[in-house]
Amino acid sequence: MDKYDVLKKYFGYTSFREGQEALIDDILNNRDVLGIMPTGAGKSLCYQVPALLMPGITLVISPLISLMKDQVQALNQAGIHAAYINSSLNEAQIAKALKLAAQGQYKIIYAAPERLETYDFLNFVKSVEISMITVDEAHCISQWGQDFRPSYLKIVQFIRQLDKRPVITAFTATATENVKEDIVCVLGLQDPEILVTGFDRKNLYFAVETPNKKDTYVINYVKKHSSESGIIYCATRKNVETLYEKLKAQDIEVSKYHAGLTAEERKVNQDDFIYDKKPVMIATNAFGMGIDKSNVRYVIHYNMPQSLENYYQEAGRGGRDGERAECILLYSPQDVVINRFLLDNKEQNNEYTPDEAAAVRERDEERLRAMTFYCMTTGCLREYILKYFGEKGASYCGNCINCVSEFEEVDVTDEASKIISCIREAGQRYGINVIAGILAGDDRAKLKEYGVFEYKTYGSISGMSEAGIKQIINHMLIQNILWQTNDKYALLKLMDKAGQVVNNDIRVIFKRPKKDPAKENGLSEGSAAKRSTSKSRRSDTLNSRGLELFEQLRELRTAIAREEGMPPYIIFSDKTLVDMCVRSPLDKKEMLSVTGVGENKFERYGERFLKVILDYTGGIREKFYFGE
User: Fold this and answer.
1) CB neighbours (10 Å) of residue 267?
2) Domain 408-513 in this protein, CATH class
3) Which CATH number fits domain 204-406: 1.10.1740.10, 3.40.50.300, 1.20.140.10, 2.60.40.10?
4) Does residue 524 carry a pLDDT above 50?
5) Rounded Cα–Cα distance for residues 70 and 29 (Å)
6) What does DSSP say about strands 492-494 and 482-484: parallel, antiparallel, or unpaired?
């Protein structure tokens, strides 16, 4: 059996996605690899396929129990024997799993990093052949990453204790250049093949909205997308609870998740979401890492996250099946205040030296500023994200709110000159809030205390709101006319281009969206849904008969999922069901040509799905989609 046989027999695919085959070939040639691939690009196949072709056991080190459970369920459904070892099992269950693994029962074993230093686990790995160690979510090993886990450093010591070094592979979806270097160095990858397939998720639509009433926006949006599954992220537990009650009062099937709930409550609520009993989840960022639910059609951020790494990872939980999903961030200036408070009260890692702790805080501030600029930019949002991760993007993607919105250009050179003069007059000693207050002529006590009422620039832009002045300042920061210090005070400083602005050598042109009165009054659920028309879901290609068949197949999938006690998407993804409608297979051979239908899946479920199609069509070939 070769890699193509494995791909078709167990996973139901006839070809590899971008980057997968190259990494698989390197692994089979006993070479270390680092794969940086966006969520939904098929990272897991890159180690699962070679695991089945290598002689020994592949050990996958993974950070969360939910991730392991999902992966192992999916593998067992595909006919691949796999197991996980973590704290959700008791000692007797762990002993049994290790015994069966030693007897050759499992080809792939998932383990939490904490298990690596236990006596029983070390004895086990020394008694069997470990062909490969895969580090999933590899960015967790970097102290400069957004999700550093000290337990991941145990991996390095664990590898050193092995009698024979196996192939080491690492995978992650988000890694800046610094984090990528950390992964290679800390893990000790030897002459690794490093493959970055790109960070772009073309099926995701990005939008930043600034509604006056966030709650109204969310309620209207969820109601309009009532047949779809989505995640709504909030920065605090209080926001989760408040929004949960408001949606529940609207008779919306909604669940909630945050660290203040008991472990049992979190498990029940998470299962309700995964099994589609309650399609809407409101949660803090404690939820989602490792959730492999493929049919999440929207991810709304009620508050701005602390970093683009966090945002892209959380937004990336939408559209994992490759179908269209919307990622909408609801921004308000208060979000910056909340995030700075959270950074100020962040639990400190005792392993850091004072210098390291200061450096981490500085990086946190940099990330927060980059995230804030994302919310302020009028350029292509996708390009902004890709540029942040070191990748070049087009200035127009056609699938974000800024690329499909109407803007008007405003010359704000005079205002920019006054901002520069104010910063200079203040001795470059203040941040954006104070400078905006001075220029707007605000009379709050804090400004009086600073003695700024005597400034020549005090009130020089009194005809504009402080929020409007801040927008121009943020635009100037993005344009490298100004910069901010890398500390919690974020003092505004002048760059060389500031002098060119004052001398009228360059003009400052600010793009702003044309006003939407309905949205401003909280009457519209936002422009995202109205404007996001450039990319459609595959199910949109189905005609009315095709959609009817699709719903019947979904009902069968739900029934089977309930019978077997597992998430519907592990039976078959939406993408596979749509392909069944497009191909309308009438026998086993044709069903095996459907994307995502492997031999084991067909043996378990194929006949039942074929029966639905045959009953619906009467055994007569029919076209269920638009187009040729």
Assistant:
1) 15
2) mainly alpha
3) 3.40.50.300
4) no
5) 29
6) antiparallel
Complete DSSP assignment for 284-309: -TTS-TT---TTEEEEEESS--S-HH
- The answer on pLDDT for 66 being more than 70 is yes
3-196 is classed in which CATH architecture? Answer: 3-Layer(aba) Sandwich (3.40)
HEC string of 496-511 equals: HHHHHHHCCCCCCEEE
Burial class (CB in 10 A: 0-12, 13-18, 19+), 514: exposed
Q: Which residue has the higher pLDDT, 150 or 493?
A: 493
Domain boundaries along the sequence of the chain: 3-196, 204-406, 408-513, 538-617
What gap in Å lies between CA 597 and CA 575, rounded to an integer?
Answer: 11
Q: Give the predicted TM-score (pTM) of the model.
A: 0.73
Paired tokens of 626: 């638009």
Give 450's Cβ-side CA count (13 Å radius): 20
Mean pLDDT, rounded, for 117-132? 91
Q: Is the pLDDT of residue 597 over 60?
A: yes
Residue-level pLDDT at 535: 47
pLDDT by residue (tens digit) across 236-261?
A: 999 999 999 999 999 999 999 998 99
One fold for both 3-196 and 204-406? yes
CATH topology of domain 538-617: DNA polymerase; domain 1 (1.10.150)
Q: What is the DSSP string of 415-431?
A: HHHHHHHHHHHTTT---
CA-CA distance, 206 to 242, in Å (whole number)? 25
Segment 437-484, tens digit of pLDDT: 999 999 999 898 999 999 999 999 999 999 889 989 988 998 889 998
Check whether 538 has a pLDDT greater than 60.
Answer: no
Q: Specify the pairing of strand 280-283 against strand 229-233.
A: parallel
Q: How far apart are the first and last CA of the chain?
A: 36
The span from the CA of 177 to the CA of 289, in Å, is 22
Contact 123, 324 (CB under 8 A): no
Task: Tell me which residue of 494, 624, 600 sits closest to 551, measured CA to CA.
Answer: 624
Q: In whole angstroms, how far apart are CA 112 and each of 87, 117, 232, 291, 618?
A: 8, 10, 28, 16, 50
Amino acid type, 118: T
At 71-104, the pLDDT tens digits run 898 899 899 999 999 888 888 999 999 999 999 8
